[in-house]
Each structure stands twice: as C-alpha cells, then as structure tokens.
Amino acid sequence: MMKKTPLVALLTFLCVTTALAADPPVYPLKVIENGRYFVDQKNQPFLLHGDSPWEILWRLKKEETVEYLDRRAAQGFNAVLVNLIPDSLGEGHPMTPNRYGHAPFRNPDDFRTAVPEYFDHAEWFVREAGKRDLLVVMFPCYLGINFTWLDDLKRNGVAGAKAYGEFVAMRFKKYPNHCPGISSRRNSRSSSSLTATASMVQTMIT
Fold first, then answer.
1. Which class in CATH covers the domain with range 49-205?
2. What is the Cα–Cα distance from 140 to 149, expressed in whole angstroms?
3. How many other C-beta atoms lie within 10 A of the C-beta of residue 66?
4. What is the pTM for the complete model shown?
5. CA dihedral in degrees (102, 114, 29, 46; nearest 10)?
C-alpha cells in the first residue's frame, strides 16, 4: 500500500509557502458589492485566517505580545480577534487591570471615565499587529453569558454608551488594520440595554 505521508507533507508545504508568498493585504478592508465577502483596497478577496487571543490586551506584557504576534504572522495567520476591555475578574466585576496596573475605567458605571494609559496600550497592540500585516478584529466590550458588560451599558444609558462608542472610534479609526466587532451570547429582554448597545455600535461605525 502506497504511503501518503510524503504527498500530504508536500501539499501542506506548498499551501503554506503560497500563503506566505502572497502579497499582504492593503487595509482597510471593505465589503464587496454583493455583500458576500471582504476585499482589500486592491479588491483582492480576503479570507480571514485568524486566531482569537481574546484577553491578550490585559494578560500579556509588550515583550510577550511581540513574541506572540511574530509567531502567528510566521505561521500564516492574517487576523487576531480580541476584546478591548476585560471580561472577567474571578467571581467579581470585569475590571481586571492590565499587566501594567491600568484598569479600563476609573468608574465602570461611567464609560466616560476611561483610563488613557489602558487604551494607549491597546493602540500600541493594533500598531504592532499592523507592522505584521495582521487585521485586528476588536470587540469594544464583551456581551456574552458571564461577566458581561451588558448590565453596565444599561446603567450607563444611551448617553454613556454613545460616548464610549465615540471614544473608541476616535482612538482606533486611524488604524486601517482595525476592524470593530460585536457579538453576544446573552439574550437581553431589557429594551434599555439593547438601546444602549445599539447606540454604542452605531456611533462606532458611522
């Protein structure tokens, strides 16, 4: 029986080599006219091949982050998916500080109290990813099942949520490799929560 291992290895090598040899995408991405997929500024289709280091912005220091980004770029990844602000703190509120001791807000009940140093580090991350032609799909706040910011958005109201959306947009719109993302695994029946979330998202993408 013929062994298939050498053939598989050869095909794998050719696929990886071809991916690495391809021209890097020209950001920002855009949606093709038929709405079915992304293309770059040269209208080249963009197949998202991403990793999801969701907590990297507060779990790792800069030197550790650089090592991670270098490795993923060398492996042929073209995107990373991250949360902008923490989503867990043991059994408590999602106010975990980053490795430099900065939490995202001075007061989590007021999204207008952002700590500049925390978001400076997030901007640094986007720039470093861009140096390696990596797209950063960044979620402004976790809206999942546990340790979610959904209740905080409700307490902030439309004005606070909109202010946070404007703040994030102003911080990151200058980076062509930044792409805002939003998702939720929690079904909120609160109209005020949904309205606040919608205000934040609308502000970020307009």
1. alpha beta
2. 10
3. 15
4. 0.82
5. 40
Q: Contact at 8 Å (CB) between 67 and 77?
A: no
Q: Is 109 exposed, middle or buried (0-12, 13-18, 19+ CB in 10 A)?
A: exposed
Question: Consecutive sets of 10 residues in the chain, 206 residues long: mean pLDDT of each?
Answer: 45 44 88 92 96 96 98 98 80 75 90 96 98 96 74 84 90 96 61 56 60
How many other β-carbons are positioned within 10 Å of the β-carbon of residue 79? Answer: 22
Task: Please give the full DSSP string across 18-77, using - where no structure is assigned.
Answer: HHHHSPPP-SSPEE-TTSSSEE-TT--B----EE--TTHHHHS-HHHHHHHHHHHHHTT-
Is-contact 94 142, C-beta < 8 A? yes
User: CA distances (Å), 28 to each of 9, 112, 141, 174, in order?
Assistant: 34, 28, 22, 10
Cα–Cα distance for residue pair 107/85, rounded to 1 Å: 13
Q: What is the pLDDT of residue 198?
A: 57
Task: Provide the β-strand partners of residue 80.
Answer: 51, 136
What does the alpha-carbon distance between residue 135 and residue 66 come to, in Å, rounded to a whole number? 15
Instruction: Please tell me the predicted confidence (pLDDT) of residue 17.
Output: 42
Structure tokens belonging to residue 185? 């695994």
Q: CB of 134 within 8 A of CB of 69?
A: yes
Q: What is the pLDDT of residue 88?
A: 60
Q: At what angle do helices 116-131 and 62-74 cross, to 10 degrees?
A: 30
